[in-house]
Amino acid sequence: MTATLIDGKAFAQKVRSDVARDVKSLRDNHGVHPGLAVVIVGEDAASQVYVRNKVRQTAEVGMQSFHFEMDASTDQKTLISKVKELNADPRVNGILVQLPLPDHIDEAAVIETINPAKDVDGFHVVNSGKLATGGGGMVPCTPLGCLMMLQDNLGDMSGLRAVVVGRSNIVGKPMAQLLLDANCTVTIAHSRTKDLPAEVAAADIVVAAVGRPEMVKGEWIKPGATVVDVGINRIPAPEKGEGKTRLVGDVEFAAAAERARAITPVPGGVGPMTIACLLKNTVTATLSQNNIDPASL
Ligand code: NDP
Questions:
Q1: How large a percentage of the chain has pLDDT more than 90?
Q2: DSSP label at 117?
């Protein structure tokens, strides 16, 4: 392997310790104790793990953590009432409703109920609109984490060609917007893209957010490119024993690492940064709700 490994675990640890320092300063110097509320509906196993991690890490950085588990049969009206209650609660600076929601609930209707100032996931249309028109809103956590790692690794990205593979509202589109704001020349690829290998081969920066194990082939990567792999895919791993599985990303890691200058691993790359950025967003939300200058922390 010739590429440098971008260590998301270590980077996330640094972000969390910065957040913990800011939380302490907010409490000691401004009398404000940031609070994050997490709402989960139903028993989706992966969501339960994510929520447990979020709640634990919220407490570890010294924030108030409010955690609401609602039954899978909860109706939309009840969930929206809960969100409105949290909007009105002054102890709550950030609200996160864990997705996916059960099929009988309209996710968009729930997200649009969250006060945009408390929307620490950055999914509210007001925040996506702000991101598309110059910033100032809450930025979705996963793309924010990717951007921070890219900036740390590359410094100024002006004029670099970036390809984002995937155009979801939670990863692909906001990622492309952030790269555009960083003065990259950005291409967004998706399932209808005609020649994906050629699009990837032209890019100095590749961000893969597809949800298909190792579909971005190593041989497509331009030598010297920087690769961020957002994908989290669980595949069978018979070499570890019967019924065992392992996690892989959307990029063919071993082959890509022979050509890239730097690459994020899976696991241990983008994943740990997502929760760290959620905590960072909660501090940002607390500062703006209380008209506190970040420089005063
Ligand atoms: P979505 O399923 O919402 O979007 C996938 C995107 O990939 C779509 O835009 C789709 O195109 C595109 N796509 C699918 N097949 C192809 C193909 N053959 N060629 C090119 N593009 C294709 O996924 P998400 O954005 O929510 O997530 C992507 C991955 O990132 C998943 O593995 C997910 O688990 C992971 N993830 C990781 C997070 C983390 O914390 N590390 C957080 C969030 C997600 P089209 O629009 O045309 O259908």
A1: 97
A2: G
Q: In this predicted structure, what is the pLDDT of residue 271?
A: 95
Regarding the beta carbon of 143 and ligand 1, being less than 6 Å apart is answered: no
Residues 6+ apart with CB under 8 A from 155: none
Mean pLDDT of the chain: 97
- Can you name the residues that pair with 69 across neighbouring β-strands? 40
Helices (H), ranges, 103-171: 107-113, 125-132, 141-154
DSSP state of 119: B
Find all residues with CB under 8 Å of 216, minimum gap 6, and list them.
165, 196, 200, 206, 208, 210, 229, 250, 251, 252, 256
Ligand 1 touching residue 53 (CB < 6 A): no
Task: Please say if the pLDDT value at position 142 is more than 90.
Answer: yes
pLDDT in the model for residue 256: 98
* 184: DSSP letter: -
Name the pTM for this structure. 0.97
Task: Report d(CA 14, CA 16) in Å as an integer.
Answer: 5
Q: Which atom of ligand 1 is nearest the CA belonging to 172?
A: 25
